[in-house]
Amino acid sequence: MIPSCVLVHQKWRRMPxxxxxxxxxxxxxxxxPTGDTIQLTCILNLWYTACMKQTLLVKxxxxxxxxxxxxxxxxTFNAACNDMAATAFAEQCANKVDLQKLVYYDIRExxxxxxxxxxxxxxxxxxxxxxxxxIQPHFRPHGAMVYDERICRFTxxxxxxxxxxxxxxxxxxxxxxxxAGRLERMRGQADLLYCKRSATFFLSVTVxxxxxxxxxxxxxxxxxxxxIALAATSDGExxxxxxGPKHAHVNQVRARYSRFRAKLQKKGTKSAKRLLKxxxxxxxxxxKDVNHCLSKAMVxxxxxxxxxIALEDLKHIRERIRAKQTVTGKxxxxxxxxxxxxxxxxxxxxxxxxxxxxxxxxxxxNTSRTCSxxxxxxxxxxxxxxxxxxxxxxxxxHADLNAAVNIGRRAAVIPPDVAPRAG
Length: 423
Ligand SMILES: [Zn+2]
What we know:
Nucleotidyltransferase, domain 5, eight-stranded antiparallel beta sheet
């Protein structure tokens, strides 16, 4: 059940969203490495150029007539998109202006879309086709529709006027306390989303988020994102939790999902695949929830103690784990690949930015082999995955906590202008 109004996630308009998040990008296989590194790099690059945008999800409460008009509009819009996609694919046309010349009048006449809706449909088709020119894009009948300032307008608190095929409809929407404070920053652009199962319309509205200038912190909270616990902090704390009692033990839940997935994949029947798809949605929501909780906890700890946050620059974490071809390596690989660390890091980055907390990425080399007590670095210091014992000074700690202290310390010694910043 989706609450009537939640902050979904920070949205980078140029990036295709996975289908589960309202976009048209192909759904990922649950077991496939997710290309997180690429995604994170995109986020970090955009960080410097894009101003902070968030999306708020508000629930529309249309009358039955308005609902019917919206459904018809959405279906017609997507049908028109599919029609144009065939043309774009046949003509190898990935340019908005060119495609417009080819289809504009024909589409308006046959589908009855308004001129601005037609332009929006063309943009949607071109964007999808550009992503992969080897296939003809296909759009779901109730795929998202972009409403820009020409076809939608906020007419009052909690009301929005949307253009439909039956004319303009002034539709009330519901929002909670969280969105109430952000309503005045809503801009005239929104995605209309339809959840067929609950027959509910949502608007995903872009808002400009205030960005407090991050303070120059004197100290950093070091965070080691890891395999045994999802996160260890330089305060000596393990963060590994989620909301709700049934999600109390993230590792147990992860292991259960992992076993379940392995079983179904081995089976490989049609019904097993169907079940796998269904479960992958549930697992993805669980992961996202945990990531929100973890990042929130980290940012509030850092904010409360006037510190920045230090993370490892983990561009190559997957390769590093892949390199270990031992039995434990295999187990770690499974655990690591099954967690969306890039999502967690992106959540940390945007929550930190909103809170005015600086995030710094540090060189990850030897963070787990260096003694946080005396600074001695040697492979033998790391006795096992979990245990750190310095061969020189005898300092002993949990390996992840020791690493977290090193990470925090590394951030503190980097001159502020040189450190790669994530916020
Ligand atoms: Zn030592």
